[in-house]
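Renewal narrative, Specific Aim 1. Our central claim is that a sequence can be written position by position from structural information alone. The example that follows is taken directly from our test logs and has not been curated for this report. It begins with the structure tokens describing the chain, in the order in which they were read.
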């Protein structure tokens, strides 16, 4: 079993390497590392936002928001720095169980599609409630009048996304294939 720092070093050395295989310990130690690295500035942000919101009104209370804004920027930079190695190690972990890295891609695509569909559904329903026009297509108006249909579509997209996420999670829990597979030799059973 790999140790925490050894796993982190491997993931950083294979920053954008989507080929090969990754052991469970490599994957889960890196997940813990990313959680800790993101959690620290999130906690700092929450603390300073809480202090700022409870401070008395005036210029003094605004000073507490500056560290929170800096923490938000740090979270963004850390997130951008960690996204590629996280996706790479997750892909290699799936390869270790004999599965394609396309599961990761489909998970991302379904998240984006479901999010856009949700924004579109809420935006369109609010627009047509506020400004009905006689030139609208009757079928579209019927769907919008019964916006439940749109929200059912959004819910189904989120359910599909949840199913893919659960599958990827379960695949990440499985043990390595002992034998060499199309992604290379097993790092655990060499």
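The sequence written for that structure reads:
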């Amino acid at each position: 079993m790999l140790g925490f720092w050894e796993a982190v070093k491997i993931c950083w050395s294979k920053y954008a390497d989507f080929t090969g295989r990754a052991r469970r310990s490599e994957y889960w130690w890196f997940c813990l590392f990313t959680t800790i690295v993101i959690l620290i500035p999130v906690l700092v942000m929450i603390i300073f936002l809480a202090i700022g919101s409870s401070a008395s009104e005036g210029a003094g209370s605004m000073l507490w928001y500056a560290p929170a804004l800096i923490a938000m920027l740090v979270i963004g930079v850390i997130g951008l720095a960690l996204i590629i190695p996280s996706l790479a190690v997750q892909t290699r972990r799936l390869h270790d169980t004999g599965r394609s890295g396309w599961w990761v891609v489909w998970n991302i695509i379904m998240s984006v599609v479901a999010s856009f569909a949700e924004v579109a559904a809420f935006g369109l329903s609010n627009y047509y409630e506020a400004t009905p026009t006689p030139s609208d297509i009757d079928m579209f108006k019927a769907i919008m009048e019964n916006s439940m249909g749109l929200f059912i579509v959004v819910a189904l997209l989120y359910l599909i996304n949840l199913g893919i996420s659960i599958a990827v999670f379960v695949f990440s829990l499985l043990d390595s294939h002992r034998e060499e597979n199309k992604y290379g030799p097993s790092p655990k059973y060499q």
